């Protein structure tokens, strides 16, 4: 973002290198203007070129009157003899990498690998870190405001827990011990101080801000110390869903910023968004210096477990000495999808992981925080009551009677979700569903029953809820916003006691004999995984018990191998630190997916591996992993499945191996492989099921199914027991998409990929490309197109259209031969356009 006074103009920045004939090189920054969705070269225009010459400087700065907060956007000042420009760059590893590359390009730079960013200029010598003495870590209170600002601005060392620099690998084992002891003795040097937190959630139904948010954000007399503000359904457009792009992010960010409490000045810590799920975090400016270790992550739980129309976003940070995680989630809709909501919650908990400052430490999960604040449109409904009965109880303000039928209440009581969390009493009427612009309940054809969809829960110690309410004054959406105000006791450091504790720890370590060799005992060294199935996690665990010498452990690569284990295996954690006489549980997770299934089907790979557990300054321990994989149609080539007349699990392993390794273009040899099927029977089973049961199903291929039902569908296909198939339409539809994704050679072969992109928009040429595909692949393509056209005939009921189906199937049927690299937007668009032609034209 190019900043000129109050003006903000979006730019694309590129660092360009030009190799000179005599062997030297020159660099320049290219600045481009662009359309909002820059997809092709026609969408960008070169604005100006800034040579990286000897008078070129680029420094990180703080905008006038503002503190730079770790985790917020990075403001940099570019100066040359001719011009001066200021940019805001998004916080994250891409920006850090870009700035480092610019620094390397500056004339005279030679050793930038040892340089890191700091707050005053772009780089500082990393070797100076090792010079810090314990007294350099203290005291925070005696530092000037400018010093604090510089420390907050630093992208590596932050003021709230500066001792965490001890965790950096530069310091080695001794300093890891210091940090571990400080954590264990935290109560010796901290005290509890209350801070006021505002937590708010609002499903805005794809609307732009049309009214002032003060009734929601400013309803309390006292200015909050911290604001956590979450939105759902920020943008419901297809562009937001498929391309993650929306102008409404800026609109709602500005609407919130303009309506924060006037009794304080706030600094934005972080903004994170996944499609329509957005979370904002602000703190009072005077608290900014005590915020550190800011990380943000997203988890999509939509179709195929990835799409971001449902899921969660989270921001974690350390405030003084307390770790806090704020989660904003939008779970699956519809009354009958309670189990799906539970699964979404569990997926967010298991997949949301935050990197730590020390790359040697395992990622943090949501549960590994002192305080967790969970907000959002959780979508749990009121069941067992008809609409009129619900409305009557609301009119009588019999909220506790109504609450007895609330799905979230019953699921929490059953310990299915939010175990250990607390929610305040619901003293306000349900927040969904209203006619937009009014306080009237839904009068649409569907006439949705009112429900408390929008909720706020918490977990942790020293938390007192002061209010929990909805805000009926806001009428922009079919939901009402909800807020909760908390007093949260935060651990604050007493600097004098901290110094004393630190000195005691250092003196104690001085007496330690570091010459001792660490040794551990393992509870188990052999692991057998029985009957492993496609996309079905199996976990085996063991315990490491340490002796009397503190040690670091890590699973290390075997000679000539790229990773410490095979692709289908993972150790969690894979590295860590053990204090004397301590233990840690390690989980070995085995999960076969599209990347590994084919070789396991063909027996080219087996469930066999050796893990090497290495102790720093100690010996290595060897762990044996074995097991058996049950072959599946998932991960099997199309032509292989066409030759399998029997279910895959009824065939001998050698037959499966031969058929899987059979070349794609080989003609039938006339032996035992006579009369292959035109398409895989497993594909036919799924499509036939959907044709008979789901052609009018609303949100087909857009709403995920249940994991347990996918496993049932997979087992029915692999055993041929299709008559026992009993699953929701959404689960079978998702299984079909996963099947297509798992094909080692996509329906449109890799060799035809570029031809397809070139002729997208030319239907005649596109049909010609399809005609050149191998027979089985051509049959599958035509069969799928005929099925999708049948779905489109029922679009009035299922609400599908050509664009939705082309977007979903384009990336599955037409895949880049380069593999897992992220597709350029122009390629994604052309792939969709290619499929779109066949949906709009009769064969």
State which percent range the strand residues make up: 25-35%
Order of neighbouring strands in the sheet with most strands: 13-14-12-11-23-22
CA-CA gap between termini? 48 Å
Total strand segments: 32
Q: Which structural category do the helix and sheet elements fall into?
A: alpha+beta
Percent of residues in helices: 25-40%
Q: Give unreliable regions as ranges.
A: 110-171, 667-672
Mean pLDDT: 85
Number of helices: 23
- Indicate the overall shape: globular
> Using only CA atoms, what is the Rg?
29 Å
Biggest sheet architecture:
6 strands, mixed
Provide an overview of this structure.
One of its GO terms (biological process) is signal transduction. Residues 671-843 form the Rho-GAP domain. Its EC number is 3.1.3.36. A hairpin with a 2-residue loop joins strand 13 and strand 14. This protein is of the alpha+beta class. Strands 13-14-12-11-23-22 form a six-stranded mixed sheet. Helix 15 (681-693) packs antiparallel against helix 17 and helix 22 (802-813) packs across helix 23 (825-840). The chain has 23 helices and 32 strands.
